[in-house]
Amino acid sequence: MKKLIIAAKIKELKKNPNSDQYIEILKLDPKNPIALYKLHMQTGKLHHQKSFKNGQWDAIQSFYKAAAQIDTLGEPYYWIGKSYEKKDEMDFDSALESYDKALKLFLADSTRKMVETALMELTKKKTIYKDFWK
Q1: Which of 13, 39, 48, 78 has its CA 20 to 30 A from that of 89?
Q2: Which CATH number fits domain 31-132: 2.170.8.10, 1.25.40.10, 1.20.1410.10, 3.10.20.740?
């Protein structure tokens, strides 16, 4: 019975990713990887909204925890890259590495386009910066 309830809540979570069903799932199954993934992604996005560096470190940690739950998804690495950019706009390599990793994993088409755009813009920015300091 418990497995059926969890399956129904996961199905609802997939239909409506912005719901808080993952909290209910974690009450029933504290180690559920889908619910933990959603929790860590939401936590990471909340930290990412903060403007200070510690907020970005907290975001990066949360996104890595999400990536550890479902290691085939690239979305956490996109957000890791965005957090590195926000934390230090001169840390090109960490963000670029994260975007590259995201593109090697599964991404929804809309997210893939965002990652490709972020990668292209940051690569251009890095090139302009390098050329300036030659």
Answers
A1: 39
A2: 1.25.40.10
Whole-model pTM: value is 0.88
Residues pairing with 106 in the sheet: 73
- Residue 106 has phi, psi (to 5 degrees) of -70, 135
CA–CA separation, 14 vs 1, rounded Å?
20
Whole-angstrom distance, CA of residue 30 vs CA of residue 33: 9
CA distance 7 to 87: 38
CB 117 within 8 A of CB 90: no
Domain ranges in the chain are 31-132
Query: Does residue 79 contact residue 48 with C-beta atoms inside 8 Å?
Result: yes
What is the mean pLDDT of the segment spanning 105-116? 96
Give CA–CA dist 39/22, Å, rounded: 7
* pLDDT tens digits for range 71-97: 999 999 999 999 999 998 888 999 999
